[in-house]
## 1
Amino acid sequence: AMFRLGIVLAREGRSDEAEQWLRRAANTEVLAGMTALGAFLHDEGRNGDAERWYRRAAEAGDPHAARYLAFLLQEVDRMPEAEQWFRRAAQGGDTTAMTALGMLRQISQPEEAEEWFLHAANTGDRNAMRLLGRLLQETGRAEEATAWLNRADEE
């Protein structure tokens, strides 16, 4: 409840109050509160603080925090570490991280990219379906590609 109040206050532009409530939630070891505080701090441009909270939640097992951490690390060009966190988030079931990992691997390791796109596509992720379809087209598998591209348009 504390972190939800913090989110509402942040949306209303009441940053100081939002941060207080988000910190309270994060300090109670609620993973969603840690992640929400990380996102708030990231939005505020306080990347060092955001990274610490994302990392804390990610290390405690929150796959969404792992994804947010990976995107933050990608923004500051720490790609090897970002990829590790995308992988951890993807292995935790985060479909956005699966798709991001597929995109990172698309050129250097298309087979691995296909696996990640397929995992995300099988959860109903339309973006992953499209990316999978395009990858299959590039590898000459037109029939499979068409099926995935059509499915993406239907969902």
## 2
Amino acid sequence: AIMNGSANLLIYPLPEVTISGNNSICEGDTVVLTASGADTYLWMLNPPITANQIQIAPTETTTYTLWGSNSFGCEKDSDFTVEVLLSPTFTLFDDQLNQTILVNGAAIYPEYRFYSSGNLLSSSQFPSYFYGTTSLPSPTIIVEATNDLGRISTQ
């Protein structure tokens, strides 16, 4: 038997789930991620969170997954990666023969600042400071290195 006729098919739209927030933070900082485009949200965290906004403090680069549902019960997911940029790491070497403080590190940073008793002695892109002809207010020299994001480490 052949049947004739028609049927109406109703197709509901998927939600347009988006995540906004800072996708690059420095080590130790927090970031707020905000969901939009759906009626309800589920962040796939441990434990899961049902909110449109979360505040997180990742210790390493992490991808976050969010599920959003609309009023029709349709669901869609979205991913958002937060890159965690590490603070500069370095060690110091006092080359007493050449009267120079040398900064040794895993990377070259765009700025180094050398201080003695709070007084700025030098600020430059070079990871060394010649103190031989300088009358230092203190025998201790403090060094700050700044990475590309402006994050500072001190020794």
## 3
Amino acid sequence: LFVIFLTTSMAALLVIGVAAYFAARNMLSQSIMEGYTSIAQKMEEAVISELDGAYATQALVAKNRFIVETIEKITKSNLNASDFFKEYTDSSGLTKELILQLKELQAADSSVSECFIMDMSGKIIASTLENQIGEDRSADDYFNRGQKELHLKDV
């Protein structure tokens, strides 16, 4: 009788042990898969963020290239900057496009309050604040220092 009881008890414990083992194995497996999924999602987010940053950088480079090319056109023409823009505004919308590019550059950095381009005489020829186009800034410190060296002015 004792042997039958012992055998029955051992069989029951074996069944419970095997069931517990498989349940624990499935839970552990599921936990590991959730961890891998979480890691993969974080990595995907990091890659997407990096690509978005690279796209934004490329967009800014393209905008800067447009601005540089426009300034090169002004430099190569025989017109001063103001006359250049008067001539090209009506036919090509160059001034409006340049102002749009400046506004997009400004929007990319919340610390920038205004972007503008001056001709060599200190007159603003393109600005994100369009009412300032035509203003003479030749007496301003940043213009005079900018004639000698790279000069960025804090607001």
## 4
Amino acid sequence: EIMPSLVGSEMCIETGSRPIRDTALGEGGQDYFTAIGKSNFFPADDAQVVALTSLQDTPIIIHRRYYDLFTNACRRQGFIPNIICQNDNIASSLSWAASGIGVAIAPYTSAIQNSDPTLVMKRIDSPEIVSKAHLIWNRSATLTPEQKAFVHLFD
């Protein structure tokens, strides 16, 4: 799936989320997954964290990139998630969540693009699901000095 994105270009960055510096990411800047939905899908408390197991019977909306990661984490917790929608766009996930049909699962750095004040965002308490970024380039392409320097930032 990644190699077609390199056609006609030398380099791309595939991310589970967009790179961003945010104090909410905590020490080390590790991105984490969130559950975003209407308040009726969450316990009536002020907790900013939701247990993965509490999403067991919740209708889930998820980007296809995170499907395996999320479902495998759920299976390790002893349940199969109720995925009602799998899509190719985080904005679509947020839109479906805003319509009230379920809870979107997304990395924090993607979820913060939500502008709907009626949606609640909670960190999913599971160290098994984290978002990562990968730098990919076509090794047969000639990279400019600037591109080479950028690649070495990831060493």
